[in-house]
Amino acid sequence: MRHPLLISLCIAGTTVLSACQKSSDADVKRAIESVNVIDETNLNDVMLTVADPNEAVAYFARTAEQHPDRIDIKRGLAKSLIRAKKPLEATKVWQMVVTSTEGTNEDRVSLADAYIRSNEWVKAEETLNMIPPTHETFDRYRLEAMVADANKKWQKADSFYDTAFGLTTRPSGVLNNWGYSKLTRGDYPGAEKLFGEALTYDSSNFTTKNNLVLARAAQRKYDMPIVPMTQQERAELLYTAALTAIKQGDVTIGKGLLEDAVETSPRHFEQAARALETLNRSVTNG
């Protein structure tokens, strides 16, 4: 008489156990998926920062094939292509991102950046014009300034550079670009001031130091600026000043600067030595 009750209890127990097992399996699956998402996010970050650029391109390209609907992976691929110095390929990926339903104004800024790196200035300008003025970011105004420079719209360029300068805590790069803009216009004092200011934020940037020497030498200021520099850097900066002096007809000063460059370098500075030899030979033959 008790068997039906026992069987019912067993069936009920089995049902509860089965439900518990399913619930447990679902919880485990969700936990594993969460860990996988965290691991993937970390891996994506590594690929976008410290990984070899070409390895990052391969990783994101492979992942994009497996998950063609994931825009975040396409963004990673585009950014990796930029790091790998393949901007033309990056523009194609950014175009897909921008035209998707998940495309953002920041994606358009990145597309414009890729166009500039590909020397497609008209497309870059068209892309920037599609971004509403309410989207005010450092990268947007940095690119706007570069486009204005390319179009020789100096007043607009200055305005955009100034705005970009106010939107970043690391302004050395934009100040260097702004200074180079002034240099190309022939505003050498203005360029000198901007390069000098850029070096107060990043005194290790040799390109800015070289630009500063160019701006000073264009004003016939051939002495070295008071900025931190290694012996090798000093030799190369003296060489830059020497060539500028010679081009401006200050041959004697240029020769002296070349001699200083050869003596300053911790190892034989071949470029300066060859230039000095050529200069001496031309003077002798002349």
TrEMBL record:
Gene3D superfamilies: Tetratricopeptide repeat domain. InterPro entries: TPR-like_helical_dom_sf. This is Beta-barrel assembly-enhancing protease. It comes from Albidovulum aquaemixtae. The lineage of its organism: Bacteria, Pseudomonadati, Pseudomonadota, Alphaproteobacteria, Rhodobacterales.
